[in-house]
Amino acid sequence: MWGLAPDALDSYNTLMGTQHSIRPFRREATTSIGNSTSMGLSTADYLMYNSNIIAPWINMAQVSKDTFSYGVDATDEIAAFNDFEKEGYGNKFSGEAAYGNDLAGMTNSLYDGDFWHYIWQVWTGGVPSWDQRNTPGATPAPFNLYTFKLPKTEQIEKVIFYNNKNYNAFKTCTVSVLGDDLSTVLESKVADLPNSYDATEFSFGSPASKTVNFKISSYYDNGGRVPMCGVDEIQIFRKTPQWIVDSKCTALNSNGTIVKYPRGTGGVLLNNLKLSGFSQYELTSNMEIKDKIFTVFFQNLGAKFM
Questions:
Q1: What three-state secondary structure class fits 221?
Q2: CATH assignment of 77-239, among 1.10.10.10, 2.60.120.260, 3.20.20.80, 3.90.1150.10
Q3: The predicted structure's pLDDT at residue 98
Q4: Which uninterrupted H or E stretch holds 54?
Q5: On the CB side of 256, how many CA atoms lie within 13 Å of its CA?
Q6: Can you list the alpha helix ranges (DSSP code H) found in the chain?
Q7: pTM of the entire predicted model
Q8: What 3-state DSSP class applies to 131?
Q9: Res 285: pLDDT
């Protein structure tokens, strides 16, 4: 199965006995998940680049956003199913290089160690532009960092927050699972994040919700010249839905762009590699990598080439 898009999702769910949500593939990393069907492929095969050089001093090219078209929720990590495009971010962000300003950078599996363009950075001192970047920061009053709105109700089990300290760093963080009215708090956890790039886990008792809110009440002043904090990554994990178990849905990579559905002696393989509609920066050599991916799947499925 190739080319699954939002307009066909209802029919696809009926066919496969699933309750998938779908989202656009963005500029993100994709981790390979080992399986006999994907044997011979690795995470490196899925990480493609384009011709846009974002760090010329080290000849660093930008990660491509044209590797896949759409992904479905075939794993329990679901933060990226927030509709960033509706807010003008993700694939609707105006700049080809986000420079740390794209909200979707919180869920792209790319970290500061990959390059700071791929994370999300937030002003903490009320400074409106880089023209005033040397203005000292001020301790912020408590503010809502962001509210994730998922496409359907999920049982939230845990949240992982990867902090960033390129300049200042977020400290006290409250994560709340909210009711449908967005004001009722179903469950809330508070923790002091580390003054580092490390992760903090917030565990929940599986409240059923579509909405997860992040509130910041203090930050570490590291004496940086820019009053800014950053988020390397936020992950939201749900309890595995019974429909995934029942439908024998098996993700072959981390973002649900390649998924296996065994059925009797056969089944369906969703392979949403993007083959057209590329940005101006896409490299033609990426099609050779995609050809390899297709070939490996065909070989592993026992297809005969004439």
A1: coil
A2: 2.60.120.260
A3: 57
A4: strand 49-55
A5: 22
A6: 9-16, 43-46, 242-246, 285-300
A7: 0.93
A8: helix
A9: 95
